[in-house]
Amino acid sequence: MSILNNKPKNTPNTKQDSKMNPSLATVNAASAAELSAVENDFVVESDSTNQPTQESVTDKANSDELSFVHDAVLLQETVAAVLGVKALPKQTDDAEQSSDNQNSLQMSGVYVDATFGRGGHSRLLLSQLADDATLIVFDKDPTAISVARELAKTDSRVKVVHDSFATLTDSLAAMGITQVDGLMADLGISSPQIDDGSRGFSFMRDGAVDMRMDTSRGQSVAEWLEKVDDETLANVLYDFGEERHSRRIARAIKQMDSYDSTLALAEVIKVAHPNWQRGKHPATQSFQAMRIFINNELGDVDDFLEQSIPILKAGGQLAVISFHSLEDRRIKQFLQRHSKGQYPEDENLPMPPNRPRYFSKPKRVGPSKAETSQNPRARSAWLRMATRTDTDYLHSVEQ
Question: What's the pTM value of the predicted model, to 2 decimals?
């Protein structure tokens, strides 16, 4: 996921500019707070009295005077993990301009970036791959796919798939690929998607209540809300947003006349929510829940993880970044299960069967202090990684 770096381009003195232009500080703070709230479990640590109003953020969100830098989180760590090395060669300005490959690992093989986004991880990975290597990139988002296709025009090693990573096996098979050397994924929503109010992910920027990752297919949240009953909506808010006041909020949402404005929806949720948290918009968990549900995000993660077992070669690397406990818990439990050979259904058996161990002992890495200093929202990111063992995949064993 691309994280919003709330440091404007070509701004040598951010503090000074903020003092001279209060709206600059307001919009930077609002964008940072919203992305953190939507993507993460933690409460934004800021004084609620200093939080911008929805109206002020909406008015400033599309200002031409601001341009943001998007940084891939855990960039070096993820690419090193998917290549199976402790660290990447150090890059220098001279090395980047030289024609030799002394600062590149020149790794051959087939690799997958399951969540291309704006290509931060892919580009660094390509810099470490040999000319005969292949990188297949996946994404649901049409804008991300447009960026990926532009990259593919300049680098023949890149193959683009406009689809969910849940289609991993079938999509690779269509290319004649049955196994790969490395898989990486950066889960969740990205700042470019938040920044574009028309996508519907933002409760601080007005737009259609859409929330689809892939706007070319499927039903929008607005279309779903028109049809869903109160009880089902409440269950979605509780299961995918961990919203304790789900029933009360669901009733309020279903009393709305229309679902054509994200700000109107957020306002209804805000009024219905009885327990506001300091520094956290009351609509945060509800918007998260509807987004996760409409895009089948958790189901796609489960499918992707299960497919990683037969798709990865022996010695292949799996590296997955998550920002939310609902996703991280799945990755953690999956790797624990398949590295220890311990399955929940075996717990009460007097003689548990000997289950295969498909992965080595998993490792977990968080962002460095330097990275969190530059991008505070990156502090909730976790990278989990593991190496595929040489244990043959058993189709008959229930995963």
Answer: 0.81
